[in-house]
Design brief:
This protein has about 450 residues and is mostly helical. The chain has one domain (about 10-440). Helix content is about 80%, strand content about 0%. It contains 16 helices and no strands. Helix 1 crosses helix 5, helix 2 (about 55-80) runs parallel beside helix 6 and helix 2 (about 55-80) runs parallel beside helix 10. The longest helix is centred in the first third of the chain and has 43 residues, at about 10-50. The two termini are about 35 Å apart. The mean pLDDT is about 85.
Length: about 450
């Protein structure tokens, strides 16, 4: 556990972010291995099977991810205020609630798979294989999403090493499981889903052991108990971030039927480009988590004057992690896309190359957006958080519905990039006018185009 508000901010940010970035990279690496194995051993049909429902899975997951993020911010505030008894009691309570909610979401999704598949316009050629993947993944849904929640709690306590180590464990288990289940046993997409669930279950159990040990070391004599009474207060952190995450991924869900209707090649391409985008975004997303944890601790410790500097340091750090990886993708696009494809999958290959060469560079703007998402959570400006992501989703939906019917996947990808750029411009205005500044810090923080502090 670590107080991020003390010491040299550059050193503190880097040492805290590095394990998070590595853990994010490892998580994306084994997701990429899933996709590579599907592409190389199962072809376009395998990629389409795991991609056909990916927008729905991500959308449903986003509710739990967002809720877990809010729990982490709340725990960060308590840690800054040194409320150790409340930390452990609320952490256990929220983990239990998320397990129950995830079980309901996962089981309900499997039971209602037919109307879900129909709405998504899943191609008949991949329906059965897509269901096998969907059923095993959503059956173990609670294990997968709980790891994200546990990671947020760990980082709120100032620990980034534990999430990194557990990413290594999960990644090794997942890759080994993929190779064994698909290459050796020939279980297809079902094997990919089973490997993910098994690796997540092992990691979740280790997280629970870590929390049990850490909470015992906290300087408090308060007895551990479930505290549902504070859940209403936690909702003010968690529900807005839950809806924000869902809003962010709603565009993909609404546009997914259009992608599936283009054909398996388009669905396969989206599986590939989504992995490439997520790998790049893992660089800045996990780096920017430092800003969220740092800001939450500053708020809890009433060190408001430190928040503004954290924004600048966080942005420089996020770009430093992102740009080298993006440069490699742009220098070797054919090699990058080729690892996901079998010979003869030319149509999906062309779609994916368009995304990498034309649209991926604009992810720099999304790097800025993500930084502000974490800042808004830390200062509890949930209205701005919802405004930012809601605006981006609206842009993507509107532009996507206009361009996709005429330009196919190229139009779909252009709409994605447009949403990043316009959201970044909105967040720039929010920053310049100081709309992000919490009321507690108005007397010590000055915005570039805002009013001077009154004291």
């Amino acid at each position: 556990m670590k107080d991020l508000t003390r010491g040299n901010i550059y050193k503190t940010f880097f040492s805290f972010a590095l394990p998070l970035v590595f853990s994010g990279v490892l998580s994306q690496m084994y997701a990429i291995v899933d996709t590579v194995i599907a592409g190389q051993y199962l072809g376009e049909a395998g990629l389409a099977a795991i991609g056909a429902t990916s927008s729905y899975i991500t959308f449903i997951s986003s509710f739990v991810w967002g809720y877990g993020t809010g729990v982490g911010i709340f725990i960060g505030h308590l840690f800054g205020a040194k409320e150790y008894g409340r930390i452990k009691n609320n952490a256990w309570t929220q983990i239990l609630l998320i397990v129950l909610a995830a079980l309901l979401l996962g089981g309900g999704s499997v039971a209602l798979h037919r109307p879900i598949f129909t709405l998504l316009r899943v191609d008949a050629a991949v329906w059965d294989e897509a269901f096998r993947y969907f059923a095993i993944y959503m059956g173990g849904f609670f294990c997968v999403v709980l790891n994200n929640c546990c990671m947020h709690i760990a980082t709120a306590l100032g620990s980034s090493t534990v999430p990194f180590v557990l990413s290594v464990v999960s990644g090794v288990l997942n890759v080994a499981g993929n190779i064994f289940s698909v290459v050796v046993l020939h279980w297809g997409a079902f094997g990919l889903g089973l490997s993910t669930v098994f690796a997540s279950a092992v990691t979740f159990v280790i997280y629970l052991i870590y929390f049990a040990v850490s909470f015992r070391k906290m300087p408090t004599t308060e007895k551990t108990r479930l505290t549902f009474g504070e859940t209403k207060w936690i909702f003010t952190f968690s529900l807005p971030t839950s809806f924000q995450q869902a809003t962010m991924y709603a565009a993909s869900l609404l546009l997914s039927p259009m992608v599936n209707a283009i054909g398996p090649a388009a669905t396969a391409s989206y599986s590939v480009t989504h992995r490439i985008f997520e790998f790049n975004s893992a660089m800045f997303y996990n780096s920017s988590r430092t800003v969220g944890s740092y800001t939450a601790q500053c708020m809890g410790a009433e060190k408001y004057e430190k928040i503004k500097k954290g924004i600048g340091v966080g942005l420089l750090q996020a770009l430093a992690f992102l740009l080298p990886v993006m440069a490699l993708c742009l220098i070797f696009p054919d090699t990058l896309v080729g690892i996901f494809s079998k010979a003869g999958d030319g149509e999906s290959l062309g779609y994916s190359l368009f995304f990498v060469k034309v649209c991926l560079p604009f992810a720099v703007f999304h790097c800025v957006d993500n930084l502000f998402h974490h800042l808004y959570r830390g200062v509890k400006k949930m209205g701005l958080l919802l405004l930012s992501t809601g605006f981006a989703s609206l842009v993507r939906i509107v532009v996507g519905f206009i361009l996709t019917p005429f330009f196919g996947m190229e139009g779909f990808y252009v709409a994605w990039a447009a949403s990043w750029v316009l959201e970044a411009l909105l967040n720039l205005l929010v920053y310049l006018f100081g709309l992000w500044i919490p009321k507690e810090g108005r007397n010590v923080i000055r915005a570039p185009l805002g009013k001077r502090p009154t004291a």
